[in-house]
Design goal:
With 224 residues, this protein is mostly beta strands. The chain has 1 helix and 17 strands. It has one domain: Sandwich (lipopolysaccharide transport protein A fold). It has a 17-stranded mixed sheet that branches. The termini are far apart.
């Protein structure tokens, strides 16, 4: 019986390679089970599971692939994503990845390292859009970069523009200075900080960051 299951798994593996090998997609694991029925494709990889897709390497204790051409991947257990081309490294407890829209959702304590911009972002939920180069971070947000650190409950990180927008009791520290406001924007290229609403701060260093306080009358809702 065990030998029969091994043969079935091997056949399914061969079918996978023939179906998706041309799309720069491959995988490996200690074991695999699944169905290749049209419209109900679903494969479960368990034990040292690895998926390679368009230069991205996803590794986890288990990875489930499903939908047409295995568009979606759900990974659990010591999940690590490495994308050397984009300079990204992600770690999380649970990952959902859409291979077509290039969208990643990280749940549980998660870390996003943007090595190109030298930024480390932590939060309990991260949604990263590779096409727009834009990430949304929620709950227990922590951001580190050189001499700058920040925290909030919600953050928008524009990787293309290298900028941050923080809301939800945001606070930014830079070289000993501390800034608080209802909304804080940080340009990571120039280190400029824009404070909006309920502004307060403590300047402890001789060289304060370039800051701008937005007047009460000009407050508004930020857009993407």
């Amino acid at each position: 019986m065990k030998a029969s299951r091994m043969v079935v798994a091997a056949v399914v593996g061969l079918l996978l390679v023939s179906l998706v090998g041309a799309d720069d997609f491959s995988f490996s694991a200690d074991s695999m089970t699944g169905s290749m029925t049209k419209g109900r494709e679903r494969v479960l990889l368990q034990g040292n599971a690895v998926v390679l897709s368009d230069g991205m390497r996803i590794s986890a204790s288990r990875i489930e692939l499903y939908c047409d051409d295995f568009r979606y991947a759900e990974a659990r257990g010591k999940v690590t994503v490495v994308d050397d081309g984009r300079g990204l490294r992600l770690t999380t407890e649970v990952l959902f990845y859409d291979r077509v829209d290039k969208l990643s959702r990280l749940s549980g304590p998660s870390v996003m390292e943007d090595r190109k911009n030298g930024v480390v972002i932590k939060g309990d939920f991260i949604e990263n859009d590779d096409i727009r180069e834009f990430a949304i971070v929620q709950v227990n947000v922590r951001i580190l970069r050189k001499d700058l650190s920040a925290r909030s409950e919600f953050a928008r990180y524009d990787r293309a523009a290298n900028s941050l927008e923080l809301t939800g009791s945001p606070m930014v520290r830079r070289e000993g200075d501390e800034y608080r406001a209802s909304l804080i924007r940080v340009d990571l290229d120039t280190d400029s900080i824009v404070l909006q609403g309920a502004v307060s701060g403590t300047v402890a260093s001789a060289k304060a960051a370039k800051t701008e306080t937005v007047p009460e009358s000009s407050r508004g809702t930020s857009n993407d």
